[in-house]
Structure formats: C-alpha cells, structure tokens
Specification:
Blueprint: H1 2-18, H2 27-35, H3 61-96, H4 117-123
Length: 137
C-alpha cells in the first residue's frame, strides 16, 4: 500500500507539472470561500487536498480496491481523528475555564469536508458562528 500510494502521488505530481491534471479549484477560490464563511460551497463539500486522491477510473480493479482502502485510512487518521482531538481540546478549555473568553483560530483544513472541528463542537452542544473578515468581534 505504501509503494502504491507513493507511485500514485508521484504520478499526480507529474500530471500537475505537465498540465494534464488541474485542481478543481484554485488557492484564491479556497481563500475567498473560507473568508466569506461559505463552508457549504462545492470546495468545502469534499475532504479536498488534505488527502491525496488515489482513486481514479483508470485504475485496474485490484488497484482501485487498494486506493479505496488507503483513502479511507487517510481520511480517518489524518482528518477525522485530528479534528476530533482539536474539538475536544476546545471543549475541555471552555469547560475548565467557564468564566474566561477565548479566541480560537484554525487553518482552513479544519473546516473542510465532513467531521470538521465545527461539527465536533456542534455535536457537543455548542453554537458556532462564523465571523467574516473585517467584522468586529
């Protein structure tokens, strides 16, 4: 699986460099949607580039199964568990210091796809609101 993942990652990078593969969105798109709080946009409906995309229609059946297994593993270990830990840390601080005010800032990756830090906190009963860039807190 490791060799497969490395080969697929290298093939993707070579395709990007050659111009035969393009990302479905630009960095500017990501910044705009993040800044506007548009977490339901097409960009944020995926777990995006945090996990290399090993699954493609041109893979033989046995490699497609390997790609799907690696994809599930990466999403669980690199995204979902990380966001769960971050959300629990926020919750623990809020509960440990109920009379304190906090400001939490996270990178965009914590807000993309499913099982985000926001999802974790909402499941715990917290109300989370987006503050647009430039708006006073």
């Amino acid at each position: 699986q490791v060799v497969f993942a490395l080969n697929q990652t290298l093939l993707q990078q070579e395709s990007l460099r050659a111009g035969s593969f393009q990302s479905p969105y630009t960095t500017e798109d990501l910044i705009k949607h993040y800044s506007c709080g548009d977490l339901s946009s097409i960009i944020f409906n995926h777990d995006t580039s945090q996990v290399p995309n090993f699954i493609n229609a041109t893979l033989p059946a046995h490699e497609l199964i390997t790609a799907q297994e690696i994809d599930r593993y990466f999403r669980q270990e690199l995204i979902y568990k990380r966001n769960e830990r971050m959300g629990r840390r926020v919750k623990d601080l809020l509960e440990e210091y109920p009379d304190k005010s906090f400001f939490f800032a996270f990178g965009a990756g914590h807000f993309m796809g499913n099982n985000t830090v926001i999802d974790v906190l909402r499941r715990e009963g917290y109300e989370v609101e987006h503050t647009p860039a430039g708006q006073a807190i």
